Amino acid sequence: MRDDVRIGILYSTTGPYGAIGRDAREGAEFAFHEYRARGGSALQPVYFDPHADLAAYLDGARSLIRDHGCRHIIGTITSAARKEVIPLVEKHDGLLWYMCPYEGFEANENVLYLGGCPNQHLIPLFDYLLPRHGARAYLVGANYVWGWEMNRLARELLVNAGGTVLGERYLPLEEVAVDRIIADIEEKRPGFVLNNLIGPSSYAFLEAMRALAARNPAFLPENCPVVSCDLQECELDVIAEGAAVGQLCAAAYFDSVDTAENRAFKKRIADWLPKGRKVSNVFASAYTAARLCIEAIEVSGSEEPQRVREAVLSRHWQTLLGTLEVDPATNHAALPFLLGRINGDRGFDVIVSRAALAADPYLTASAARPVPKLRIVS
Fold it and tell me: Which CATH class is domain 119-252+337-376?
């Protein structure tokens, strides 16, 4: 292996999802910090910030590959950015390490999917919701592939359960005018609201739902929760105080996971970054992706993407998310399911957990699957 291997890190730290991008970048930085602390020097991160400009993601990937010789890119947050970058990664036979939850229906030899697809987040979320809040739901989403596809899948789950979609609305990423949607929700009185909005739209929506609940208790979180699969601890700091308390989110990791490994992980972060923080799912997932990339290159003795991919697929890896296995048929990781309730300390209390679920990105097994057992934590 060469002693000057460069790994691309491609995250936006500004714009509508800047809080998520900053946490993801710091997660990757922490993995390289630990690599250097144990004496590693051959692998060097190269950072590019597209500032949430979709065209700049392609420019960034091109620069990382052509100008810096990166065969591996850890990054992108949105599905739109991922889809923008993939053709270039394919062309140069590189490997994209994608670690955000996404809408599924994709499998690419040049992508390792480490963030979860719908059978690992949306379906178990609905397994919890439908018996408790019924199958009359309202769907809101960002006006791009994540919102469209997640709401399409939600419609199918509701119809299959004999339920009803009472409304479905979309907003651009930075749109914060939510009054008409809130009025429609108040009129139609769903049992729960699925929130697939992103960034400022989501924050404005949660604040408006709190105001609605203040004047109408039918919309308190215990009566009509707002649920999501993409809200992060780092975002709770930029939402108005108390606006999201009681709402629910599915993820593979929360800061509050009470294990010796997670406590040790958070202690190492505190030693590295003393300012104090809660660790989000995107921080943990970007850290996991970067560490897995580093370790797989070391194990294979090469940066050549095919050999690194084969190393990842050939064994189980001990990670912060548990023992991680990537399916050779789909390049998707098996991941745990956690359901968190937002608390007053700008964090999540884990109320449901499931052991790692094998990914099923095309939902080929979902139609015939038995209803799984959820472990209710509290």
Answer: alpha beta
